[in-house]
């Protein structure tokens, strides 16, 4: 029973409320769920209400003023707003957009932007065509207003098997990650050690070059990915899956970074890529202007949704299908917010982060 069971099918995104309770979205169940800080299920929201038949494909959650709940539905291309008690307060559809949005970005000055929904790019067998990801600004009523930037996206592998041609995301494909800080958008394409900072109007503010380098994909890297993909398959079919995996084109390099997160104080966290699937325990932390603050190694590799002043909220993967939401305490000592980026800070200083699918 989705309304009574604390179990989820898949954790697509999660966020923290001011009292420590946790909001998450379960795309396959088409639900947003609110849990207490102790993990007790308190409320289930399915998007039904005045003028709405419910969610189609929810994938992102954000927390608004006074702990109001925001859910972006990629299927409906609409932002749903709920009260703290879970009642549907409004539903705003994106309009005027030339592309489908996969996530929304919120800035501290009240502006919004959208990130393009990524998809596979079919090609001839043995090739790896690359997609692109666009970000665009949204005006009043979440209407398309202006382009911000277009960056290289993921690779798609095309393969012929048993007389059919199929395609899927390339193993070790780079992943575009982003975060917002004050009036700027921070973007990393995954396969370079650069972070690009853009204004909400679309101008490039800064290119931050972070210590790091690309590493060539080795036979051991590839074997680790093939084994991890075959592990959940019944033993009698594992060799077939290995054979199919080994037919995929191999990229020459591993990604440098897997994710970018802007924390609640304004620091930029870059997650190092780790074989086989991406999230590693090592992170590089930057100040807003790009100065390296240091390196942090988490107790385990996680997909991180949010980093507040005192806790880190993330997802632990166990195999391909089991997921657990975890919270780690952060000891910051006497560290306070970093100096703001001179080109990004406005009269109102605050943090907003839209997780991708990213987030």
Question: How is this structure best described in words?
Answer:
It is a single chain. The protein has 359 residues and is mainly beta. 6% of the residues lie in helices and 45% in strands. It has 2 helices and 27 strands. The chain has helices at residues 219-230, 238-245, and strands at 13-16, 22-26, 31-35, 41-45, 48-49, 52-53, 58-63, 69-73, 78-82, 88-93, 101-106, 112-116, 130-138, 144-161, 164-169, 177-181, 184-188, 194-199, 204-209, 257-262, 268-274, 278-286, 292-297, 303-307, 311-318, 322-329, 351-352. The strands form 7 sheets. A 5-stranded antiparallel β-sheet has the order 11-12-13-14-15, with no helix packed on it. It starts with 12 loop residues before the first strand and ends in a 7-residue tail after the last strand. 37% of the residues are buried. Mean pLDDT is 89; it is low at 347-359.
